[in-house]
Amino acid sequence: MYSAAAAAVSPPRRDFISVTLSAERAGGTGGYNNSKAWRRRSCWRKWKQLSRLQRSVILFLFAFLAVCGVLSYTSLGEPWKSLTIKSPDDQRTESAIPGLKLANPAVLPAPQKADANLGDYPELSPQKPPKLPHIRRGPSNLQIKPPRRDVRLKTRHGTSRAVEQPVQPDKEEKTEKSVISWRGAVIEPDQSTEPPSSKIKEPEKPSSVEAEDQKEPVPINERQMAVIEAFRHAWKGYRDFAWGHDELKPLSKSYSEWFGLGLTLIDALDTMWILGLKEEFEEARKWVATDLAFDKNVDVNLFESTIRILGGLLSTYHLSGDSLFLEKAKDIGNRLMPAFKTPSKIPYSDVNIGRGTAHPPRWTSDSTVAEVTSIQLEFRELSRLTGDEKFQKAVDEVMKHVHTLSGKNDGLVPMFINTNSGQFTHLGVYTLGARADSYYEYLLKQWIQGGKKENELLEDYMRAIEGVKKHLLQRSQPKQLTFVGELAHGHFSAKMDHLVCFLPGTLALGAHNGLTADHMKLAEALIETCYQMYAQVETGLSPEIVHFNLHAQKGHKDVEIKPADRHNLLRPETVESLFYMYRFTGDKKYQDWGWEILQNFNKYTRVPTGGYTSINNVQNPSNPEPRDKMESFFLGETLKYMFLLFSDDIDLINLDKYVFNTEAHPLPIWAPA
Ligand code: DMJ
């Protein structure tokens, strides 16, 4: 651009050289007088013709105007900045609403905005960000201020039934108007949770934040106190010897690791909330805040981590209103998503949550039917809360696919499904026990969760129960107990897993939700059987599997136990069903049966130094052979259902407002459209 020739004809002042010449070159013809350049040159001449005084006055005026300009810019700058720079909260919200950036709005409602109840992020209104007072969401008891738990705990634990003194609300609380019950949230009908919709809405609140603690707290009774005592004992063992690890080994006073994610602690969070164990809860919360990290090179089982970790975090978020749990739930939810990247979209069983890779077990490309169809409640709820539909899409696709599959027997499904072909494998074997159980449970519960609109789910559920009646129900001898056996290639087996004892509770839940009264009758018969699986055994504890006698034999009970099946893992299913049965019938015998079971757990599985242990031999009261392991579901499920069973407060996790996942973590029922 710049050349020596051009420089030779240029005026002496450097400033003008390039401007003048380049303008002429740009003009393309030597004779063309570029007006802009010409004007500049003539301005300069005029400036030179001015007197020194005139020039000084003009320069002074320019300088003055410039100073004024700078000052006014600075005073306008602050509010401008506050309108344009987003708070961390806003940024997180925006990134969590992909729908907002799409031409088509997201199918799901706007995401749950992460709350700021521990002061991590200031919560700002988009309209007046800098001026609003800091409003903390979530229960006041998790906010930083003098605790009121002691009063509440006294009420729960002491004999006095003093009503909790209301804490003088501060300004923020007046604005927020949310008082949370330690008994679990009560959602008034008009406040119930919105279902997914195609509209983008204001971020949803956790169900508890909407709740009003209007009722007098129902005092805790003796049996509930006994559950609290049992929980504390179990927790002591975990806290002393296994803190932050997956499972307690109470005899060796150590721990075992499965995923290395503090499984027991997470599984137990909402139980502590429901039992009112605030100190324990807060200590555990601290661990979640500071130590729980999912960016680990570890293989986890998709189903187990969904029902225990994702389910536990979501439910605790709803009960406590504490956004920490939602953030953690989002994190683990995202890390589990690679499982769905399979040729058939039927997820693999295992995911490496650090690497983002997934794979089936080493020996097969099959997944278990129960596992791929019992993660829906959790992923659907995660979509509803985050506004990110990918979670729900992935799990709904699995259900839709399974709905259309052949290989069912009157609604009963085989136990395996291939992740490449998407077809059932190992056809011809049907059970309501291991590997198929929660498929049936989640058909009904998804239907309830979604506001009873998803007809395919209901159809599949109703058909399956008909299939159970037709192929799997039998009566034992001598007591004529109705039980659910198994079918293998046309041959009936009188074998029933303890796992099947979820079924009476599920049937009762269906009947409560308007399904046929026959289901309730069947539930009543089956829960009696499940109870007998405890009552007919020497320790009063059920084995893992029983075989029922189909023919009366002198000196034989209904229940036979094979040596390999006589262990008890502290499982919840019978207590779970007892809870539903008591809620829906009010028949106290169910509470009494549960009370017997609790006492037998205390007698045969309690370890004096803390914790409870699974046992190897329910038939030997003098030596039940402790296995030295406390499963996380003992705290997550068994003791929680015990506590709920002994309660007469139907609002303590109201079954018209919450649906329990298969690990006993309550999730809100979406409001009907
Ligand atoms: C729990 O992890 C869940 O209840 C699951 O559905 C079945 N197995 C255990 C409890 O027995």
What keywords describe this structure?
673 residues; mainly alpha; Glycosyltransferase; three-stranded antiparallel β-sheet; 8% strand; disordered N terminus; binds 1-deoxymannojirimycin
Provide a short characterization of the protein structure.
Pathway: Protein modification; protein glycosylation. The longest helix is centred in the N-terminal third of the chain and has 33 residues, at 52-84.
Give your account of this protein's structure.
The chain is mainly α and 673 residues long. It has a domain at 222-668: Glycosyltransferase. 46% of the residues lie in helices and 8% in strands. It contains 24 helices and 18 strands. The strands form seven sheets. A three-stranded antiparallel β-sheet has the order 3-4-5. A hairpin with a 4-residue loop joins strand 4 and strand 5 (357-359). Helix 11 runs parallel beside helix 13 (302-320) and helix 13 (302-320) crosses helix 16. The longest helix is centred in the N-terminal third of the chain and has 33 residues, at 52-84. Residues 1-39, 72-192 and 197-203 have low confidence and may be disordered. It binds 1-deoxymannojirimycin. 1-deoxymannojirimycin binds at residues 438, 499, 571-572, 633, 637, 662-663. Its main location: endoplasmic reticulum. It is an enzyme of class 3 (hydrolase). InterPro entries: 6hp_glycosidase-like_sf, Glyco_hydro_47, Glycosyl_Hydrolase_47, Seven-hairpin_glycosidases. The active site is at residues 304, 437, 544, 573. Its EC number is 3.2.1.-.
